[in-house]
Amino acid sequence: MLFDALTEPSDAIAVRVGDETLTYREMRDAAAAVADHVAGAERVGVWADVSAHTVVGVVGALLAGVPAVPLNPKAGERELEHILGDSAPQLILAAPDADVPADLPRHDVDLRAAGGDVPPEPGADRAALVVYTSGTTGPPKGSRMPRRAIATNLDALAGAWAWTADDVVVHALPLFHVHGLVLGMLGPLRRGGGGHHVGRFSPEAIAAALDAGGTMLFAVPTMHRRLADAAESDPEIARALSGARLIVSGSAALPAVEHARIERLTGQQVVERYGMTETLMNTAVHADGDRRPGSVGPPLPGVDLRLVHEGEDAGGIGEIQVRGPNLFLGYLNRPDATAEAMTPDGWFRTGDLAMRDPDGYIRIVGRRGTDLIKSGGFKIGAGEIENALLEHPSVAEAAVAGEPDEDLGERIAAWVVVAPGAGKPEPQELADHVARLLTPHKRPRVVRYVEELPRNAMGKVQKKLLTR
Q1: Average pLDDT over residues 257-261
Q2: Which of 101, 107, 175, 259 is most enclosed, with most CB atoms within 10 A?
Q3: Where are the domains of the chain?
Q4: Chosen CATH of 4-196 out of 3.40.630.30, 3.40.50.12780, 3.40.50.1820, 3.10.270.10
Q5: Which range is least confidently modeled, 23-27, 125-129, 306-310, 346-350?
Q6: What is the mean pLDDT of residues 122-145?
């Protein structure tokens, strides 16, 4: 079963979201009641606000074998209309006080419901979730995630991170995305441990949760940076972070300077992993592995990974392609998009560019189209230039992309956020800094200063908004 701990539940804490707590017994009862209500539906929406009701709604749908569609409560009118029209949920599960704008049948999740028995486990290839992509290249697409992907991927991560029922995962991630929902909430339930969502992110809330028994911290780079900022001035936050068994960063690359700062402040070396909505996690640095900045570790057990450039295996930079039980079932109602994403022999084209170290560790260098820059006959990954810029003391954030250039084909352009309290460096100073750390042909030819970089809900920089 996906959640063995719900078959003979205990009174141990299963889920804590803000001030709401549910034991495994209460989770079983509430989720079983949801399962009974939605049984037989083709799909159900879950209004995925930060609440225990969201977790119960998703788990209840999973118990019933009904695909759940997590709905971003901050989605705009057009995006929400598209997702509801595409997924056609028969009802929406929500917290009683949730302001759900959809004109659809609704069921309020009762955290204290008295449910019946857990239904029999559905087939492993049955769709469990329909998670919508961020829509950076068009309207969001519904990725149909099978039960086998969730089960095998969480088990592979458990092996990599020595993740057991004794662990309590602390995070403040959105519950409409696979990072916060699958890893952060369903992961602890599969292990039989605890999931503690602090509600609204703050360094103080994260520190308090770790002090209250949290053993693992999942966060995105923006959160890690703010945690490090807070730890610089508050020894208690640094102490709480130092007590975690494992600190994990994902959804975007954590700059080397932040790796070093967190280690200096807390003694912790952050573990990175790499995944996508369509694949869940593909690689991960192991708890007992080499935690080197810039690397997302080796492929997880069961995941085949290759690097391809122009249809051939790449010795240098190549597109990551993966296959294995972690793959999605395809995009809902989009056989054309599914066919475009898959190779004829069953590999998923991620669109991410990477290099492979001699020991098998993968280093992400950018996205195909925006992060592979062809300048002066060289193929250059934007990610390594960004990391180099971030090592300059005056740079707080940086994004790099290619721009058309009559002479070079593409020139390297950088968008830079100046660090608080630092003076604005001359563009040539930053170009020389990159040339010294990397090679001269990788220096930015254009530097633009901005107040902030445009990011999506998971903290990923939206470079197309910069290059328009």
Answers
A1: 92
A2: 175
A3: 4-196, 369-467
A4: 3.40.50.12780
A5: 306-310
A6: 85
pLDDT band at 138 (very low <50, low <70, confident <90, very high): low
What pLDDT digit, counting tens, does each position of 76-95 carry?
776 788 899 999 999 999 99
Which of 230-239, 320-329, 361-370 comes out lowest in average pLDDT? 361-370
**Using one digit for the tens of pLDDT, what is the confidence trace for 369-388?**
667 787 866 667 787 788 88
CATH architecture of 369-467: 2-Layer Sandwich (3.30)
Q: What is the pLDDT of residue 282?
A: 98
